[in-house]
Amino acid sequence: MSRVLGSVRARAAAGATVVVALALIAAGTAVLLVLSSQLQDQAGLQAQVAAREVASQIATGTAYDKLDLPDGDEHPVVVADEQGRVLAAGDEVRSVDGKPVGGAKPGAGSAGLPGSGDDDDDDDDDGVQLKPGEVDDEVDYRDGTANVDGTVADYRFAVLEAKDTHGAQVTVRAGSALSPERDAVGSVRTAMLIGLPLLLVVVAGVTWLVTRRALRPVEGIRGEMAAITASTDLSRRVPVPASQDEVGRLARTTNETLAALESSVERQRRFVADASHELRSPIASLRTQLEVGVAHPELLDVPGAVEDTVRLQRLAADLLLLARLDAGERPADARIGLAAMVREESSQRVADRVPVQIGELADGEVAGSRSQLGRVLGNLLDNAQRHAASSVRVAVVRDGEWVVLRVEDDGPGVPESERERIFERFVRLDDARARDDGGAGLGLAIARDVAERHGGSLAVRAGSVFELRLPVAG
């Protein structure tokens, strides 16, 4: 049960249901309030029409006992003088607001009627003096009860003043039943209470079905990812839906990630295999020389052992640097002058087979790691030394917002078809193997990785010109 409630479908259905429920409750409440107000205003208007009709009869001189009053059960009407005595009342109207009308014939006079005279504060004189035969334009509305033929009900009363032709001022009070309004509001409320749960069930069901349909590809992606994890087969791919929505983009991005992961794992496997192969040779050579030295000290090749040890040390350093680069190590943010670095590195290379010639050294600083960029320059010079016939040249030039370091030798050059492959790890061309002095094929790979992590590039141009391009420090 907890798994179902914790699913995206359940949460989406519950969320949509809650939102719709709140919206419907707010809208239903507003509808009921507006409906109640309009029906109440309508009842007041009906009461006003009835009151004005009776007041008009009084203003035109119709005797109180001759007034044409509406039926009491529809619009109870009471006419009272300034002292509150009842002058006329509708048929079967027995009391208003609990006070008896008197039950007598029109004009019988019954004191104390609410809404007339001094007994009701709401009918205080408003300063308007009516002339004989006039009806006041102002109408007061109030809610109250009336007993009509023994039935007490709620009414909306309209109260207005009028003067008969003899100058006597009277108060006409006419009511309109509120029961139709309340019945209508009650019917609407009942319909809402019945329809709301049904509508919420429909909303929840539709949301559940739509969400399940929308998330079906996601479940397929999850299932395939679980299978890939269980089988460790990174060549598999998740299904890509035909839709061009977020789920389709997720599937395509997942496949791209799997492809990158597969490539990375395959690259790591090759790296481990090649590293094991490269380490095996110097270690075996060193062990053989040490074993011979133990058995026959006079035959120990100390220079060869030292050479193998240095080769092993360099290889271990290269592998460690590659591991740090693969782990995402960010270069430092120091300012480095490439011209000064070239002078310093070149002055320390006293044992090179071919002397390094320094060409143009343009000014220009780059941001990055001094040790890593020095390693790039050293690897490029080592590569040039292995292939040069008689000349190695290094220069630094400016190219707009770039600082370009060029290392050139007069060797046979790199075939155009091999100019990208030489930057792969543990790759050495056949000619390079024939003249190799112990390199493992990692120097150029390290140089390109460092260049790219510094926001630059490393490429081979025509012949054997290696060009390192780095952005000028901001």
Summarize, please.
With 474 residues, the protein is α+β, with helices and mostly antiparallel strands. 48% of the residues lie in helices and 18% in strands. It has helices at 2-5, 8-59, 179-231, 246-295, 302-326, 338-347, 370-387, 430-434, 443-453; strands at residues 77-81, 86-89, 93-96, 99-100, 140-148, 151-163, 169-177, 334-337, 356-361, 365-368, 392-399, 402-409, 457-460, 465-471.
Order of helices and strands: HHEEEEEEEHHHEHEEHEEHHEE
- The proportion of residues in beta strands is 15-25%
Task: Figure out the total of helices.
Answer: 9
Strand order in the largest sheet: 2-1-7-6-5-3-4
Task: Determine the CATH topology of the largest domain.
Answer: Heat Shock Protein 90
Count of the domains: 3
| Average of per-residue pLDDT values | 82
By helix and strand content, what is the structural category? alpha+beta
The backbone outline, from C-alpha atoms, is rod-shaped
End-to-end distance: 59 Å
Rg over C-alpha atoms, rounded to the nearest angstrom: 51 Å
Q: Percent range for helical residues?
A: 40-55%
Q: Can you identify the CATH superfamily of the largest domain?
A: Histidine kinase-like ATPase, C-terminal domain
Secondary-structure arrangement, i.e. CATH architecture of the largest domain: 2-Layer Sandwich
For the biggest sheet, the summary is: 7 strands, antiparallel
Given as residue ranges, the uncertain stretches (5+ residues, pLDDT < 50) are: 1-5, 103-112, 114-125, 431-436
What is the CATH level 1 assignment of the largest domain?
A: Alpha Beta
Strand runs, count: 14
